[in-house]
Fold:
Amino acid sequence: MHFFPSRARVYVPLIALLFAVPFRAADSGTDRGELLNPWEIHNEIRVPASAAPAVKQSFMTFLEYQDLVMFHPTVGYYASGRVNFTTDYRTFPGALSPYFGHMIAQHIFNMWDGMRKAGTLSETERFTIAEFGAGDGGLAENILDYIDRRAADPSGDRWRQFASQVIYACYDRSPALSAAQKKRNARFGARFQAREGDATDPTATIPAGSLKGIVLSNELPDAFSVQKVVLSLSGSAEVAFVAPTLPRAGWNKLAKDMPAALQTRLKNEDLTIQTKVFGSRRDSNTVYLSRAGFVALLEAISSAKDYADKLDAIEFHEIYVSVDTIPELANHLRQYIPAYAYELARSGKGFAGYINLGEGRFIEGAGRILKAGYVFTIDYGSNWDTVSPLEFDHFRSYGPGSRLEHSDPYHSPTLNDMTTDVNFSHVAEEGKRVGLRPVFFGPQHTLITGTPVLLDTLPPDRNQDDNAVADDYRIWVQNFHTWDVYKLLIEQKENTDPSYVFPDTGAEPLAVQEEKLTDAQKATEKKVQQRLRDRLAAQPVR
Structure:
């Protein structure tokens, strides 16, 4: 049986594969051999700390690189519509369709019912389910269909009231996916809407305080672009920039796809980059690509029949400089120094990690657009214990040629999905700033609690006579009950009625669990906190 991967965390041995190639010694930074996960460093070029402004001017951060290859309107994995929700990866809403959506619909009904009974929502007001990152619209279809089925039951008076108030709106950055959502859910008429919108900035699409209802997402924040950092016990903090290059062989392979003007432009930019970053023309056999040059190259080769093969001609390097180069990132680290010091003390080594500032912006925006209601976030991740890679990798990719063990973010860019674990502690803390209170945080399988949904029969839309289909479904049911890496976070907007209570008692902690540290680790934590404060007290490099 061919079992397509879910976007789940994969537990693997920590094999110390170091891909870094130090071209130039740095005058600051962490010895990569001392990292807990040195395999995360890809083809590193070390530069002096004084080169940081030139690096920032010349190259993309890892976040910018990920955002580009995922969402560029022409070549991006999602925005181009290249994503395949069957062959690249599968998620629980699809694998357990329609039951997964039925579980969520039941909880949303209970939230609506509580708001109506408490007077938070009047009978004439609209109740909006705003789903961000809705994929192909399958979850929306299952939720609306369940609502209609319950409303059609002779005893479903309350469900009919619910159905009459519900508007389901999907928001997605990809025009191609928005079109697919609209087509799939056309039968629901005006009750379903598909709109373009960026989940990291909900208020750009929805006015603040204008929505009563639910902000819903399933496996969304894990797909936000992230900053890649290296943190050390000494207090150093570095951020990754991505330097795409074309070695001579790669240039020769792609030259026929590049107009003469583009070739001249890339060579001129290369000379400027090498002079600014390295102080001279360091390597005449390699062309360094700026962000704009990289985009122009991708656009030039995107229509080639052998596009995937041509992507292999591009080589990628990472350059690490002080996080002060990115003020927003430095400010985040300053704000959460105790938590990162905890992670470093827990690890006992420095580590390469991924910081998802987008998850904070998403939850802040969700809180701002809500006047009353709840935020319903389902994804894989955990609390602060997911920041450092103690047991497993936290970055992974899905798609043609991708690998789950030590995923390579630079393999076939624009052809693969990229995800990282969600730090729900960070999400909850940022939510508090905009009036969101955590109601429940725990395993995804708690969704079934308090609902009439049963998973022990094959869904009626599956081939009942196909043993392979039945076996696949049973595997996903088993995973649903046992893969506790998938989490559910429910937050309530302030001034919403207090009557809703999640019907499961298996909540997990969101706060840093210092009680798990040994006395020696606690002592280390205090030292690291002070070192980080001293290091991050410097003025940002603009």
The radius of gyration is 24 Å. The mean pLDDT is 89. The longest strand covers residues 370-382.
